[in-house]
């Protein structure tokens, strides 16, 4: 369990608070808007109304004690930049800041952010891959060259085993897991026989996975 300071409770901040709660982390949420604070109370451990661009207010939070500080402000870049800088000045060990534009990301990193999250850009990239393919159900980019895809079983594979198909040798991909009826089977063995009601989680170089996805 980690202690998280979450600053900014717009849509992104609220969704992050909910997920952090699901992961059983302790969250102190901060926002200027009392209504947003009240809406977030079911999802956070504690909450405070305050101006995160105020040095005294940031100092009062004891940011050194948090494992992670998240600046989720998306509608006011100046406030996001000032908040990020103040958190680092006060000794925050790790600051994750939200960016809405490439230039914002650059300035945030130069002014104290340890990492930057770019939800709109990342979601656009995911949606482009997910919905431009007929058989792709999910996608996780690992690097510019490698990704994990959830995809349907090719028709020609149904009724055949991993070893019969010589998957790694012929297709240059790794099957990380099989999912059927909501149940995940990690690392299927060589004698696993593929079925039409399964989906595959595959890992490989984008060049090879794209060839596979055309089957």
Automatic annotation (TrEMBL):
<feature type="domain" description="RCK N-terminal">
    <location>
        <begin position="1"/>
        <end position="118"/>
    </location>
</feature>
<dbReference type="InterPro" id="IPR006037">
    <property type="entry name" value="RCK_C"/>
</dbReference>
<dbReference type="InterPro" id="IPR036291">
    <property type="entry name" value="NAD(P)-bd_dom_sf"/>
</dbReference>
<dbReference type="InterPro" id="IPR036721">
    <property type="entry name" value="RCK_C_sf"/>
</dbReference>
<dbReference type="InterPro" id="IPR003148">
    <property type="entry name" value="RCK_N"/>
</dbReference>
<dbReference type="GO" id="GO:0008324">
    <property type="term" value="F:monoatomic cation transmembrane transporter activity"/>
</dbReference>
<dbReference type="InterPro" id="IPR050721">
    <property type="entry name" value="Trk_Ktr_HKT_K-transport"/>
</dbReference>
<protein>
    <submittedName>
        <fullName>TrkA family potassium uptake protein</fullName>
    </submittedName>
</protein>
<dbReference type="Pfam" id="PF02080">
    <property type="entry name" value="TrkA_C"/>
</dbReference>
<dbReference type="Pfam" id="PF02254">
    <property type="entry name" value="TrkA_N"/>
</dbReference>
<feature type="domain" description="RCK C-terminal">
    <location>
        <begin position="134"/>
        <end position="215"/>
    </location>
</feature>
<dbReference type="GO" id="GO:0006813">
    <property type="term" value="P:potassium ion transport"/>
</dbReference>
């Amino acid at each position: 369990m980690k202690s998280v300071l979450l600053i900014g409770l717009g849509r992104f901040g609220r969704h992050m608070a909910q997920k952090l709660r699901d992961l059983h982390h302790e969250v102190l949420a901060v926002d200027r808007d009392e209504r947003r604070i009240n809406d977030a109370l079911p999802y956070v451990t504690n909450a405070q109304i305050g101006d995160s661009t105020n040095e005294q207010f940031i100092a009062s939070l004891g940011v050194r004690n948090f494992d992670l500080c998240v600046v989720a402000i998306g509608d006011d870049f100046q406030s996001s930049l000032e908040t990020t800088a103040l958190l680092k000045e006060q000794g925050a060990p790790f600051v994750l800041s939200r960016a809405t534009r490439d230039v914002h990301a650059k300035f945030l990193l130069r002014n104290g952010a340890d990492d930057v999250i770019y939800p709109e850009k990342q979601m656009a990239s995911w949606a482009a891959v997910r919905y431009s393919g007929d058989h792709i159900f999910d996608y996780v980019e690992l690097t510019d060259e490698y990704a994990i895809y959830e995809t349907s079983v090719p028709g020609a594979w149904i009724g055949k085993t991993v070893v019969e198909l010589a998957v790694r040798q012929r297709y240059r991909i790794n099957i990380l897991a099989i999912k059927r009826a909501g149940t995940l089977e990690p690392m299927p063995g060589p004698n696993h026989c593929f079925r039409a009601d399964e989906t595959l989680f595959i890992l490989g170089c984008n060049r090879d996975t794209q060839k596979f996805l055309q089957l």
